[in-house]
């Protein structure tokens, strides 16, 4: 199973990409609003648009729920990316419920994304300020949302920290990369009727594999860095995989991005960077 054999250079989940999708929809006018109103399963919002300053509601619980919904919507898109209308709705909800002490950061990351799209620079790596804002938002969630925390460590080529059952509910996976290559934690839930092991699943063609699992969340980090994945876990059988290519050092990824080519190494999961765990 392959989502991608390599990821773009850069560190975190990068909220610029998420908010950017909302801004692109907002630029399309009423069409996007109609799509959201036309039966989307994503949470709806009473805000007037994602490009304005709508935060400061002070509802910490609602903001925590919205963060979970953002990550879930982005992850659910799988290799094709998230549904734009659903993504717009959950991002508006996150901005409208952001408490006062984080709303400026949420609004600022929206502004930076808007500037990136207007200048034609949205396809490149995010500026350092975006990474800093993303980390502050993650730190706020970790400090204020009542999420269970699961530390996971990555190196070449294995995960540590997922060997015991995890309790169901809203969970923060705290992902730390102690290796020399970039790694990611892609969290999948097996469908209840799936019988394959994660090794058998990884050997299937991508299209078939995705009929047997759901992508629940992911985090990615360069060497000596960390990231978080916020996931609402339900009981069941889960797996974790890394799809980066062997040889995905920061230098190699930057060179590949500059040249517009992909790295040719096999995915990390083919080297043993995959594991199963249960949620009870």
In short:
The chain is α+β, with helices and mostly antiparallel strands. Helices cover 39% and strands 21% of the residues.
Structure description:
This protein is of the alpha+beta class and 280 residues long. It has two domains: 15-142, no CATH class; 147-279, Cupredoxins -  blue copper proteins (Immunoglobulin-like), CATH 2.60.40. The chain has helices at 15-27, 30-37, 60-76, 84-97, 100-119, 128-144, 198-202, 206-209, 250-259; strands at residues 148-155, 158-160, 169-177, 183-190, 213-221, 225-233, 236-241, 274-279. The chain has a four-stranded mixed sheet with strand order 2-1-3-6. A hairpin with a 2-residue loop joins strand 1 (148-155) and strand 2 (158-160). The longest helix is centred in the middle third of the chain and has 20 residues, at 100-119.
What's the arrangement of secondary structure elements?
Layout (H helix, E strand, L loop, with lengths): L14 H13 L2 H8 L22 H17 L7 H14 L2 H20 L8 H17 L3 E8 L2 E3 L8 E9 L5 E8 L7 H5 L3 H4 L3 E9 L3 E9 L2 E6 L8 H10 L14 E6 L1
Parallel strand pairs: 1-3
Antiparallel strand pairs: 1-2, 3-6, 4-5, 4-7, 7-8
Helix pairs in contact: 1-4, 1-5, 2-4, 3-4, 5-6
